[in-house]
Amino acid sequence: MSSPTARLAGGVVLTLVIILAYAGYTLNSVRRMRQVQTDIVDTNRKSALQLIRIQGDLNALALALRDMLDRTESYPLSAWASQLDRIRENLDDALRAESRIATARRDPQQNAYLQASFQQLWSAVAQMKALAAQGQSEETISFIRETLEPQQQALTSFTARLLVQNNAEEQRAATQVAAIYSEIERNAYLFLAISLALVLVVSLGLIRSNRLLFDRLASLSNQRRELAQQLISSQESTLRTISRDLHDEFGQILTALGAMLTRAARHAPDSFTAELQESRAIVQDTLEKVRALSQTLQPVILEEQGLGPAIEWHISVFQRQTGIAVEYHPPATPPVMEHTRSIHVFRILQEALNNAARHANVETVTVRLINEPFTLQVADNGGGIDASATPGVGLAGMRERAELLGGALSVVSPPGTTITLQVPYV
Questions:
Q1: Residue 82 pLDDT more than 60?
Q2: Structural domain contains residue 281
Q3: Which residues make beta-bridge pairs with 192?
Q4: Where is 287: in which H helix or E strand?
Q5: Radius of gyration of the chain (CA)
Q6: Can you list the alpha helix ranges (DSSP code H) found in 298-379?
Q7: At CB < 8 A and 24+ separation, what contacts does 414-417 make?
């Protein structure tokens, strides 16, 4: 099964590319909106303020011209010269400000027309002031009606058209901004859909890869469990064969040898009797050790009397062989377990006690057996298992047997080492 790493990495890279592309698009769209608002909307508003100011000054000029025509005051026409100069200063200032704001954006012909119209207006005002200064009242009034007022009205109308044009451009800018917003919103939904689809595809690929991986692991675990069961069965068969051979062949040989030495001692000279007796004692001791080894390899007591007596017998043998005291806490009632299962519990007890004798360097080991639920615990107060040490074959074998029993094996260390086996009754 191929590794899903490359596909998952490709999905992540593609997702990052899409996110970066959308982020760049969004930033560019925001820049466009900002440019539209700055270049058109804000500029139009500033220009509109100046155009309104120009309209106000033109209206002030119109009022001044109307007062000159109405002659409601006894002042001569030349008395309005200072007022007209102030209006011109205000108009010139507003026109310069408006020209700086809107010249680059407005039609050059409109700008030229606006400038030329104001130049003509101020030329006409100068002529009117000259006529008024000469005392030619009738000619001045006629000039105002025929020349100044039409020019003022034309400029007012043209300024009003520029305001309308500004409003139309501002509306178009608002439409552009709304379009950009709509585009961003539409693309946001598109990006969300693509992202969700991509996440879904990557997730489905990951789920499928994980399923294949876990199926493969489950298959390997089952194969390992079957292999471990076969190895343990083979081991038990081998131990049974060795135990039978030790008991039947070596035991008979040693028994026969002991009988021969006994008969030889009866007919041997007195000088050889002591040596023969010593040899017979060695043979008898060897026979007992062979029988004990045979029982350890394949305890007949486990088949005949059950797990409880077998554990007690093995503890007594362990104490006699190692000199380590064992504090045994049996349950109130002897445990009842099928033989093929009890042999695994017995082997785990053997391995745990052997490990304590080889590695713990202790004088006392505690063994507890509990029925509800069935629990076997072997604890010592030694130095414990080094955290950097590699687990040995014995511990691995105990775990395999625990799995075959459908139970669990836990090892707590340090302080000391406590091995606990819990299995369900079947």
A1: yes
A2: no
A3: none
A4: helix 270-297
A5: 57
A6: 300-305, 307-322, 339-355
A7: 414/383, 414/384, 414/385, 415/381, 415/384, 416/360, 416/379, 416/380, 416/381, 416/382, 416/383, 416/384, 417/355, 417/356, 417/360, 417/379, 417/380, 417/382, 417/384, 417/385
Residues 201 and 53 both lie in one domain: yes
Please tell me the total count of domains within the chain: 2
Last residue of a domain, one of 206, 222, 240: 206
Q: What is the mean pLDDT of residues 119-126?
A: 88
In a domain, 189, yes or no: yes
- Phi/psi of residue 404, nearest 5 degrees: -65, -30
What's residue 247's pLDDT?
55
State phi, psi for 411 to the nearest 5 degrees.
-125, 120
Residue 276 lies in a domain: no
Domain span at residue 27 reads 5-206
For residue 279, being part of any structural domain is answered with no
Q: Which of 78-92, 191-205, 390-404 has the largest mean confidence?
A: 78-92
Residue with tokens 């991986």: 213
| The predicted structure's pLDDT at residue 83 | 85
| Residue 148 pLDDT exceeds 80 | yes
Q: Give residue-wise pLDDT tens across range 316-347.
A: 888 888 888 888 888 888 787 787 788 888 88
Cβ atoms within 10 Å of 426's Cβ, excluding its own? 8
Last residue of a domain, one of 186, 206, 226: 206
Quick one: what percent of the chain has pLDDT higher than 70?
74
DSSP lists the bridge partners of residue 366 as 327, 379
Sign of CA dihedral 336, 339, 344, 347: positive
Q: How far is residue 327's CA from residue 325's CA, in Å, rounded to a whole number?
A: 7
Examine the pLDDT at 142 and tell me if it is beyond 60. Answer: yes
**DSSP for residue 144:** I
